[in-house]
Design brief:
By secondary structure, the chain is α/β, with parallel strands linked by helices. The protein has helices at 51-71, 76-79, 115-124, 133-136, 145-155, 157-165, 173-181, 194-197, 212-218, 255-262, 321-331, 339-344, 384-410, 435-445, 457-469, 475-479, 482-485, 497-512, and strands at 7-13, 17-24, 29-36, 48-49, 80-87, 92-96, 106-107, 168-172, 191-193, 227-229, 232-237, 248-254, 270-274, 278-285, 296-301, 310-317, 354-356, 374-376, 424-428, 448-451, 489-491. Strand 19, helix 14 (435-445) and strand 20 (448-451) form a beta-alpha-beta unit. The N and C termini lie far apart (65 Å). Residues 8-262 form the Carbohydrate kinase FGGY N-terminal domain.
């Protein structure tokens, strides 16, 4: 006999894979399925996805998950109350309103083909690189969707013609999925949420509307933009042809914002998600803080149409877990990602080797598009174990760079501390299963690092947003997390202060070696 329960589904669409997870009312996972999809790199610095493959990956994951849960005795058909969506941010899609077909591959957030567009704008606009900072909180960078949209409008004939005819729709991956899930060419709903919109460079972070002066300056037609909504409200119902037809979609957040919610980050709390890149966000409450040290001012979340807006400071690291994939796929040093901890553990240190993964430049707090990756300190003593350890440690050093900038921007007034006055960094994402990595992160930061029992908090955050909108959970349920904290693992620093300072100084020296290398001869 099927188990009668309440369930919330979460679509977690990442940079390299798609997952669908079903949660019960206790926020426990009762079924999931994940598949990887193709990354296309047609030229150096270019990274693309096929939007149709992403859409199909969602369909497969949903079907497989529901089949698994049903086989385990859960009555999903009667118990599924809502769907939440979380997605890779900034990745840009333009498709035809009339046919539903993408007009070009999706340009991924780490794609840097727009470097020349950014350079031209910096020279032309009075404010240079920070021209739009006051309205959107972001510098001009290849990272953000507006630059990718400009490239598509200028370089892809189909996109330009469709925009002129009024047949083009623009969106990040959330918009593409919601439009298709709610009917597609048959009155699909064209929306995005405030967190994803905040990463386009086109939304005013105070009004939460598309900024007309910015659109006029960049010559982007407002007709192709989706409507901006909150992170937690009923958007529409899933259309025909899907395994969960009729179920409301009621939560939507960019992946890093979803992780903040999944980690129950209130004002003053910071979290770091380790995925393809690494992303550190500090919830600043309803206060918009302008960074003076290379960070981004962005949205944290807005949990309802009339709910207050929580803001955040963010430091984005382009290459974290992707460096491990590089060791596996490009160098063949490991055959699977999980092997790196064993390999790195065979040596007590990197032997003086430092690796800076500036494959496509450096993001926060450096913002150097001319940077390229380096490995320094190599001697005849160096072996693959040292390289593996240096790759892992590079993630931790980059996180320290960002947290150091956050401290400078907010001082100590905004930090969430425990009853002992200790500040901690909450962590999540696949790489956090690596115990050696987490211990070194604590050591190099000199603070506690807290890993939750469920490290995949991104999907959980989207589920929370969806459940809040339909009354499955209250905000008290989400943010009162004493029960979940019992499953947390805390790492405390053991490295002495003198050695920590020496390692950080060596890292900074290595970072400086990456600058001005983009024009090296092939």
């Amino acid at each position: 006999m099927a188990k009668e329960e309440t369930f919330i589904g979460s679509i977690d669409q990442g940079t390299t894979s798609t997952r669908f997870i079903l949660y019960n009312k206790k926020a426990e996972i009762i079924g999931s399925h994940q598949i990887e999809f193709t990354q296309f790199c047609p030229h150096a610095g270019w990274v693309e996805h096929d939007p149709m493959e992403i859409l199909e990956s969602v369909r497969i994951c949903v079907s497989k998950t529901i089949d698994k849960a049903t086989a385990n005795g859960y009555n999903i058909d009667n118990g599924l109350r809502a769907i939440g969506i979380t997605n890779q941010r900034e990745t840009t899609v333009v498709w035809s309103k009339s046919t539903g077909i993408p007009l070009y591959n999706a340009l991924v957030w780490m794609d840097i083909r727009t470097s020349s567009i950014c350079s031209e704008l910096e020279k032309k606009l009075s404010g240079g690189r920070t021209h739009f900072l006051e309205t959107c909180g972001l510098p001009i960078s290849t990272y953000f969707s507006a630059m990718k949209l400009l490239w598509l409008l200028e370089n892809v004939k189909k996109v330009k013609e469709a925009a002129e005819k009024g047949d083009a729709l623009f969106g990040t991956i959330d918009s593409w999925l919601i439009w298709n899930l709610t009917g597609g060419i048959n009155n699909g709903i064209h929306v995005t949420d405030v967190s994803n919109a905040s990463r386009t460079m086109l939304m005013n972070i105070k009004t939460l509307n598309w900024d007309k002066p910015t659109l006029e300056t960049l010559k982007i037609p407002s007709s192709i933009l989706p409507k901006i909504i909150s992170n937690s409200e009923v958007i529409g119902r899933v259309g025909k042809g899907w395994p969960f037809t009729g179920v409301p979609i009621s939560g939507c957040l960019g992946d890093q914002h979803a992780a903040m919610l999944g980690q129950a980050c209130k004002k003053g709390h910071a979290k770091c998600t380790y995925g393809t890149g690494a992303f550190i966000l500090l919830n600043t409450g309803e206060e918009v803080i302008k960074s003076q040290h290379g960070l981004l001012t962005t949205l944290a979340f807005k949990l309802g149409k009339d709910a207050p807006t929580n803001y955040a400071l963010e430091g984005s690291i382009a290459i974290a877990g992707a460096a491990v994939q590089w060791l596996r796929d490009s160098l063949g040093i490991i055959s699977s990602a999980k092997e790196i901890e064993d390999l790195a553990s065979k040596v007590e240190s990197t032997g003086g080797v430092y690796f800076v993964p500036a494959f496509n430049g450096l993001f926060a707090p450096w913002w150097r598009e001319d940077a390229r990756g380096v490995i320094i300190g190599i001697t005849r003593f160096t072996n693959k174990c040292h390289i593996a350890r240096a790759v892992l440690e590079s993630m931790c050093f980059q996180v320290k760079d960002v947290l150091g900038s956050m401290r400078k921007d907010v001082g100590h007034r905004n930090e969430g501390r425990n009853e002992k006055g200790e500040f901690s960094l909450r962590v999540d994402g696949g790489a956090t299963i690596n115990t050696m990595l987490m211990q070194f992160q604590s050591d190099i930061l000199g603070i506690r690092v807290v890993r939750p029992g469920d490290i995949e908090t991104t999907a959980l955050g989207a589920a929370y947003a969806a459940g809040l909108a339909v009354g499955v959970w209250s905000e008290k349920d989400v943010f009162s997390n004493e029960e979940r904290m019992k499953k947390d693992k805390t790492f405390s620093p053991v490295l002495n202060e003198e050695l920590r300072k020496k390692k950080v100084a060596s890292w900074i020296k290595a970072v400086e070696r990456t600058f001005d290398l983009a024009d090296l001869s092939l």
